[in-house]
């Protein structure tokens, strides 16, 4: 790889307002295999009452609703929630959908029956916090769930099986090590189990799912990865242009002859019980 080649492919930084659209239109679909595997294993159907922590722009909720589930979701990003509302409003379902910015209470009616499934697919859901904050969010959700209900946590698989690891190391290297914002680090073998136990949940099975990241071109790859939020701390510490430059260099080895980018990855999920 020559410096000239990297400069030729380097995209301009995306305006902040476009990042949510980049997530919804480029990046979010990469996790569809994970959503499908979990829903199939847990037999999500019209008897399911789902609560999603970190529901983002709503693709996982939409997929569950298409199976007949009643869905609710919370997120820390109001702009992503706006997109989720648009998507779910267009879904041909007579069941009301509750979406909220904040804690579990903002989507719970005391008269409602308990949730039968809780998901936390986004490991960066508690950006600005850490394991303790995520465990507390899980405890609050579990308190609204039926006894024995599954709670699904997801995270990265082994770094050697995740092509995105190199790109995500850029975030960890450039970020201020003292920053409180969540950023990527290699996944420990028992991270999800430890988080579940911290939240008072009982681990009860796990699985791995291939979630390759495929992009139309290098610029789309950089925009998609930046939209995840994993690079926010790095951007605050340095600047958007520096992060985009180094991210482009990290992704470049996965650029194929036809101009597309293909990055094989494995995600791991844990099923815990309330």
TrEMBL record:
Residues 1-20 are annotated as: Disordered. It comes from the Bacteria. InterPro entries: Methyltransf_25 (IPR041698), SAM-dependent_MTases_sf (IPR029063). Pfam families: Methyltransf_25 (PF13649). Residues 1-11 have a biased composition (Basic residues). One of its GO terms (biological process) is methylation. The keyword Transmembrane does not apply. The keyword Cell cycle does not apply. GO terms for molecular function: methyltransferase activity. Residues 51-139 form the Methyltransferase domain. Keywords: Methyltransferase, Transferase. This is Methyltransferase domain-containing protein.
């Amino acid at each position: 790889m020559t410096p000239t080649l990297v400069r030729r492919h380097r995209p301009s930084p995306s305006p902040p307002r476009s990042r949510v659209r980049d997530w919804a239109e480029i990046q979010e679909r990469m996790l569809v295999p994970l959503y499908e595997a979990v829903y199939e294993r847990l037999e999500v159907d019209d008897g399911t009452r789902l609560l999603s922590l970190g529901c983002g722009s709503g693709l996982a909720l939409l997929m569950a609703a298409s199976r007949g589930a009643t869905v609710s979701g919370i997120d820390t990003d109001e702009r992503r929630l706006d997109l989720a509302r648009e998507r779910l409003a267009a879904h041909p379902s007579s069941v009301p959908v509750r979406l909220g910015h904040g804690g579990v209470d903002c989507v719970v009616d005391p008269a409602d029956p308990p949730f039968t499934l809780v998901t936390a697919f986004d490991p960066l859901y508690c950006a600005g916090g850490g394991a303790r904050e995520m465990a507390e969010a899980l405890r609050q959700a579990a308190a609204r769930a039926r006894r024995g209900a599954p709670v699904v946590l997801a995270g990265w698989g082994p770094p050697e099986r995740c092509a995105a690891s190199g790109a995500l190391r850029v975030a960890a290297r450039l970020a201020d090590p003292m920053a409180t914002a969540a950023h990527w680090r290699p996944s420990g073998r028992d991270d999800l189990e430890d988080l579940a136990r911290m939240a008072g949940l009982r681990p009860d099975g796990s699985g791995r799912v291939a979630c390759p990241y495929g992009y139309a071109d290098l610029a789309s790859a950089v925009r998609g990865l930046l939209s995840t939020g994993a690079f926010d701390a790095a951007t605050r510490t340095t600047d958007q242009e520096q992060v985009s430059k180094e991210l482009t260099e990290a992704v470049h080895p996965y650029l194929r002859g036809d101009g597309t980018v293909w990055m094989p990855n494995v995600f791991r999920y844990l099923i815990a019980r309330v």
